[in-house]
Amino acid sequence: MQINDKSGLTPYLPSADRYTNMHFRRCGNSGIQLPALSLGLWHNFGSVDSLLNAKRIVRTAFDAGVTHFDLANNYGPSFGSAEENFGHILKDDLVHYRDELFISTKAGYDMWPGPYGYGGSRKYLVSSLDQSLQRLGLEYVDVFYHHCPDIATPLEETARALDYIVRSGRALYVGLSNYNDEQTKNMAKLLDDLGTPCLIQQSRYSMFDRNVEEKLLDKVQQKGIGFIAFSPLAQGLLTDRYLTNIPEGSRASKGMTYLGKNEVTALQPKIIALNEIAQRRGQSLSQMALSWLLKDQRVSSVLIGASSPEQLEHNLHCLNDLHFDESELNIIKAVLMG
Ligand SMILES: NC(=O)c1ccc[n+]([C@@H]2O[C@H](COP(=O)([O-])OP(=O)(O)OC[C@H]3O[C@@H](n4cnc5c(N)ncnc54)[C@H](OP(=O)(O)O)[C@@H]3O)[C@@H](O)[C@H]2O)c1
Asked: What pLDDT sits at residue 1?
């Protein structure tokens, strides 16, 4: 990689082959197609991280056909700084490619002090998105999500706020995140009635967290809503990072993350067993974990994180083998249930 003085990288010219290897999937019954792998900016893009590294990750993604980038108002740390950094990257590298990008952000969790800085009120959602657009340097996002259900706010108010956000041109589509099947059904009905259908539902789904298989995946499919799986590698547990220890610099080694050291230790035997299955398939554990999610056509996209361009490049190779035979699925199931 060539370095120059100003941004640390030479001017960016995207790869001409960027759409050669990516698979695109229809997002529910909509006109939108999403890349099988999308990139999330929850970690590694904040004010505490290297902007140069963040830029290299985004360039690697776009060069490989990853058109979808996922943010939220509070990604950082500090809150808002991932949007700000992505705004710099867009301005420096991708300003001419806005129409090839599908960018999402969210509001719902804590963002600023006081009663208007969290939840599902119209006041919070509209002002939060205005702040996000400013940080991103964009006129609109492609998807705006309500990040989590808020039982204190009437569903109707949140639905009307989401509808207003689309009608006012701040977002092209809306999505729901962390809503369960019943909440999704109720909100989707309100949004349908308002004429702003829910495009997509975003929930945690990995080999180590299969809750959505119980009801949600069927529910979104019935309603014609797309589904995007977040933390598909269980924040790095489903990689070869933690096979023997907790390496320095890994997410679990850092304080203030949602991946605890105890969780690593408890799951290590399963990680080792799954790693052996992956090797027999000719994949790494991370590649197998992503392929395993993508074998299900109800999954429109899998939303990965990466702390380096190399991790992202490595994971993209999962697309070379999305097939599992019955015996492999049974062996994996036995490990996961064990
Ligand atoms: N809607 C919500 O409430 C919600 C919640 C969480 C996440 N999300 C979205 O989902 C996105 C992805 O979440 P996530 O970052 O938890 O996803 P993930 O893909 O499960 O974990 C990503 C982490 O795994 C490690 N990793 C990835 N590839 C690796 C490889 N080949 N070898 C070794 N380690 C590897 C890296 O951690 P190291 O730092 O250890 O290298 C990386 O940062 C987020 O950015 C966000 O957009 C949404």
From this structure: 41
